[in-house]
């Protein structure tokens, strides 16, 4: 692999930063705008359990070891961690492959949102695969219940969080999102590889179900949080789904509120955004970015919320009422 890195790894030598050949700013992406070193047995904990604070962490700083990992911390454990590259663009199915081939974190396995983390569209654009199919995918990727997993993308976790949420949902708690994604990795001067990683197939037991999933008929009397951009929520723009607007009664907290300069805000800042929500259901366009806001709540020390996987892509095709404007 060493010959394929952009620069030989020498002690104390900083690698130059290079942007991917396809810049995320060049595409119109409405859907996305706005561990230890040794493996350990993954115990199936309760779905809502989090460990948000560290005894030695400064006040107001997240102990993100359960949910996020910083680039240099990941670099120290690459040899004992399964890294998944989930870069993706709506309406550009080849983007993930091109980005991966242009350069990725050494040893990272490419994961496709559409093929690996979703069933074929209907209802909604990104329904969940069956538990059996997801288990087969995890095995093909070389993952086992004891695997330490880190996932990343190039949009501050908005896509990678889908795999984080799905693994958490089946009880695989040893999974984290790279804070700041591939940009942060490159900006830290860390090595980038063009080697195509071929995982060793494994057997992943089929889980009983995905926990924390809410269907279209389960939204009554629930606080639905629409994490899409304000203009889509208000019905001023809708580039993907058939009817502009939002689910009646849903409140709008765009996913970008949780970020500052491409990384997650502090616990105090996140708690100010999400702390008043009582057992919310996260919704977005197709059940992807909603997982990012679920991650933000977990980083803030809140229970991982339920996700309406069908989200607005299902609702807007169901014939049910649609609201518009800036009010629920």
Order of helices and strands: EHEHEHHEHEHEEHEEEHEHEH
Mean pLDDT: 84
N-C termini distance: 53 Å
Task: Give the neighbour order of strands across the main sheet.
Answer: 1-5-4-2-3
* H/I helix tally: 10
What's the CATH topology name of the largest domain?
Oxidized Rhodanese, domain 1
Residue stretches low in confidence (pLDDT < 50, at least 5 long) are: 1-63
Question: What composes the largest sheet?
Answer: 5 strands, parallel
Q: Assign an overall shape.
A: globular
Radius of gyration, in Å, reads 19 Å
CATH C-level class of the largest domain? Alpha Beta
SS content category: alpha/beta
CATH architecture of the largest domain: 3-Layer(aba) Sandwich
Looking at CATH, the homologous superfamily of the largest domain is Rhodanese-like domain
Number of β-strand runs: 12
Strand content: 5-15%
State the share of residues found in helices, binned by percent: 10-25%
């Amino acid at each position: 692999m060493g010959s394929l890195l952009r620069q030989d790894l020498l002690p104390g030598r900083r690698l130059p930063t290079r942007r991917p050949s396809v810049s995320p700013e060049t595409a119109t992406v409405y859907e996305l705008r706005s561990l230890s070193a040794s493996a350990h047995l993954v115990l199936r904990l309760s779905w809502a359990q989090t460990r948000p604070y560290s005894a030695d962490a400064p006040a107001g700083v997240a102990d993100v070891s359960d949910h996020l990992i910083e680039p240099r911390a990941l670099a120290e454990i690459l040899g004992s961690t399964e890294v998944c590259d989930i870069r993706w663009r709506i309406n550009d199915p080849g983007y993930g492959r091109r980005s991966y081939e242009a350069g990725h974190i050494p040893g990272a396995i490419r994961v496709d949102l559409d093929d690996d983390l979703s069933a074929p569209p209907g209802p909604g654009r990104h329904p969940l695969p069956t538990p059996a199919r997801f288990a087969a995918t995890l095995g093909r990727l070389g993952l086992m219940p004891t695997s330490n997993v880190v996932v990343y993308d190039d949009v501050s976790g908005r896509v990678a969080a889908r795999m984080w949420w799905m693994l958490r949902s089946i009880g695989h708690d040893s999974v984290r999102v790279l804070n700041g994604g591939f940009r942060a990795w490159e900006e830290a001067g860390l090595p980038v590889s063009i080697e195509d990683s071929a995982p060793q197939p494994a057997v992943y037991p089929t889980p009983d179900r995905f926990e924390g999933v809410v269907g279209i008929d389960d939204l009554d009397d629930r606080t639905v949080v629409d994490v899409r951009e304000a203009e889509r929520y208000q019905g001023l723009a809708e580039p993907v789904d058939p009817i502009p607007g939002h689910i009646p009664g849903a409140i709008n907290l765009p996913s970008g509120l949780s970020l500052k300069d491409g990384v997650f805000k502090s616990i105090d800042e996140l708690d100010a955004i999400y702390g008043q929500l009582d057992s919310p259901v996260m919704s977005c366009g197709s059940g992807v970015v909603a997982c990012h806001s679920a991650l933000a709540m977990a980083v803030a020390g809140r229970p991982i919320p339920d996700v309406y996987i069908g989200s607005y892509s299902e609702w807007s095709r169901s014939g049910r009422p649609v609201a518009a404007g800036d009010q629920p």
